[in-house]
Amino acid sequence: MNEGHLTKLWSWFSVAAVLFLAATVVTLQGGTEFVGRLFGEKAGAPVENPAGVAYFGVIIGGGLLLLASLPFLLHVRRHGNVWHSRIPLVWLEGLETAAWEGKLYQFCVLLVLVVAPVAGVVSCMTIAERGDICEQDKKHFYGGADTTLLWAPAAVEGQQMRLRKAGSGQEDCTKGVEIFPRSWTPLFFYVVPLLGLALTAWAVVLLCVPRGPGWYVRKATVAATS
Predict the structure, then answer these.
(1) Which residues, 6+ apart, have CB-to-CB distance to 165 below 8 Å?
(2) Where are the beta strands (DSSP E) in the chain?
(3) Alpha-carbon distance values, 80 to 17, 97, 211, 216 (Å)
(4) Cα distance between residue 30 and residue 223, in whole Å
(5) In which band, very low, low, confident or very high, does the pLDDT at 180 lie, cut at 50, 70 and 90?
(6) For residues 94 and 148, what is the distance between their CA atoms, to the nearest angstrom?
(7) Residues 131 and 31 sit within 8 Å (Cβ to Cβ)
């Protein structure tokens, strides 16, 4: 893929991640007319199950973050010789990033399309982990402080395992969202988002690492043969 391909892919996936995670966080703050309605929340009412909303915020937002991190990392590794030129240039084609306003613009892009989704995923993880887990229509209850989604409790009597708001205690297990089977939840809730976080962090570190002589040789070779 060339620089243009990587820039387009990163902009598509990162914007999707920002919009979804921003809507999720707004929902968790009480704006239930957004993502909360997808999970049975009533518009204009307090969120009944923040843990459930946050759970799917991590799974979907984390997946988008992983998809965005791959072209971002490749762009940082392959293109540009200083930090502001290594960040993909989105929307303002031809901008001189070496100018102070260009650097400011690239820094803002980094905050909005890289830092914001990372913060959103981490925030949703924290909220989801606080939720209680229960077996639907049964008397098997697990408090958020006593379990973890890294290895969620398995069904004892073959019913759905549901994630609901923290502090639900011994209330009948009729609400909440169904969580993935035990082996799938760690994969989609932890492995995929954390891999996206790790690749993104790696790319951010590489932004400030000086290019070695070999990079300039390769660029000159490619320019001479193109």
Answers:
(1) 48, 49, 50, 51, 52, 131, 132, 176
(2) 132-135, 141-142, 161-164, 177-178
(3) 25, 11, 9, 10
(4) 54
(5) confident
(6) 48
(7) no
pTM of the model: 0.80
* Look-up of token digits 């040789």: 217
Beta bridge partners of 177: 163
List the one residue out of 72, 52, 63, 90 whose CA is nearest residue 10.
Answer: 72
Question: CA distances (Å), 126 to each of 13, 57, 81, 149, 173, in order?
Answer: 23, 11, 37, 11, 22
Q: What is the pLDDT of residues 84-105, one digit of tens each?
A: 888 898 888 888 888 888 889 9
∠ CA 137-143-147, rounded to 5°? 110
CA torsion, ordered 107, 110, 112, 114, to nearest 10 deg: -160
Q: Would you call 220 helix, strand, or coil by DSSP?
A: helix
User: CB-side exposure of 70: number of CA atoms within 13 Å?
Assistant: 12
The answer to whether the beta carbons of residues 134 and 161 sit under 8 Å apart is: yes
CA distance 175 to 153: 17
What separation in angstroms does the CA of 138 have from each of 158, 159, 163, 196? 10, 8, 14, 36
97 and 103 Cβ atoms separated by less than 8 Å: yes
CB 118 within 8 A of CB 151: no
Contact 31/47 with Cβ under 8 angstroms?
no
Per DSSP, what are the bridge partners of residue 133? 142, 163
